[in-house]
Amino acid sequence: MNPQRTADLFLSLLPEDGTFISNAALRRDLEARLKAEGLTLTEDDYWAVHAALIGEGVVLKGQGRGGTVRRNMAQGGEDFKLTEPTVAPIIEKPPPAAQTKPAARAYLGKMVVKAGIEKPITPIIPRHAYANRLQESNAPS
Question: Residue 13 in contact with residue 40, Cβ under 8 Å?
């Protein structure tokens, strides 16, 4: 992938009037354009260019399911050049819930034994007890 070419195409696909476009639609159009040129676009490539353009202030983030972006009309987005090949920071993803549940149950089991509780307990019981204590103490919701 050529980051500058991808950034140029990214900007060319943004509406000129500054209206928002969804990341899904923009990525789909960007992939089609690059595919026509014999290039590929991975999800990581898209988000790296996305982050670089937002970081430079040329593109603004919006809201919505999947997110939206728009051209920063104050910046114009004309003749934009990436200052350095920008690599998005690697963010460690939390482990899937299926992997954390056994660990939580094992920890809870140790605490139950340590506390001398003889009744069977599932992770939801301490959660409900905690919620009840919050309600009783008039904690703001």
Answer: no
What would the pLDDT profile of 11-41 be if each residue is shown by its tens digit? 889 988 888 999 999 999 999 998 998 988 8
Tokens for 73, please give them.
């009309």
The pTM assigned to this predicted structure is 0.53
What digits encode the pLDDT tens for the residues 48-75? Answer: 888 888 888 888 888 877 788 988 887 6
Tokens of 16: 């000129």
Written as six digits, the tokens of 1 are 């992938």
Q: The domain 3-71: what is its CATH number?
A: 1.10.10
Backbone φ and ψ for 43, nearest 5 degrees, come out as: -60, -40
The token pair that represents 98 in the structure block:
């299926």
d(CA 53, CA 9): 12
Contact 28, 43 (CB under 8 A): no
Return the domain boundaries, the chain: 3-71, 97-136
CB contact at 8 A, 57 and 72: yes
- pLDDT score at 120: 76
Cα 73 from Cα 60, distance rounded (Å): 9
